[in-house]
Amino acid sequence: MYGSAISVLSEEIILLVRLREPALELCRLSNIDDRSKASLETVRILYLPVLTASSSLSWAVCFDDPGHVPFSKNYQQHPSLHPQSSSSGLSTQRPESRIDTRRHLHPVSAAGVVVVVLMYLNQLSGNSRIFDLTVRRRTLLGFSNAQAQAGAAGTGVGTDLAVPWEKWGPNKTRILEHDSWMCGGSLAGERRATVLQTHITIRDYNPFRVQRALKLFGGAEEVTLESGSVVKVVKEPSVYRRGEWFCDDVETRLPYVETTAPCKWCNEILMDKDNLVVVRTEVTQVNGASASKDSITD
Q: How far apart are CA 25 and CA 43, in angstroms?
């Protein structure tokens, strides 16, 4: 998975994390093929929950689907940017000698992808905590389109540049305390996997699969599969009470399907839209000495 201080949401829109407010800033790139005319315009500022006076956002990292690389310095590796097959709208008629000196945006799709912003909070007392904020890419792109906000398909928050957390965050995001020993976990499409010592948790934010799971469960709170995995639909809000980190109670309600699969000694996970591959290290005793070997489980 790719992690950086920014996330490229489309060919034009970039997501930046502002630490001081804190907030998510949506910016539009214009004329990126001409350095003399290139510009970066702020189109929306989506405020995050207000922190207490003793708390601050020290750093934040955006994690994208592994198939979407925000910037590429190697022009030749991206056929979609070649003159013969470009679908990005970018002008690619450039001298060969200048190809490697340019930075091009790699086109991405808005459908079926979530963005995870990993936020590291600390306090004057020395306490620290990491929170994951999950939001759908489609949601962020909707806020970047001012006309859509004013129309029937808008979010109902108007066209103001700054959007308070209460106007967009509670129903469009999910904030959870970071629960994985892997900093970024694994992200593919609208699924995210996190790893603990005894199990792997997969959260699927695709609304179609959420509704399908509700119908299949027939009212049951959770279902245990033959493999031992437990599946449930989470619609209840995640709540963090005001006082320690946030000035007000923070409730987020983005629904998801949660699958908890038992798995010990997981070293790494690799995931695409259909499969999850687990890399495990098994430790055995050979002539009194420890030896290890890697195994892969699909």
A: 8
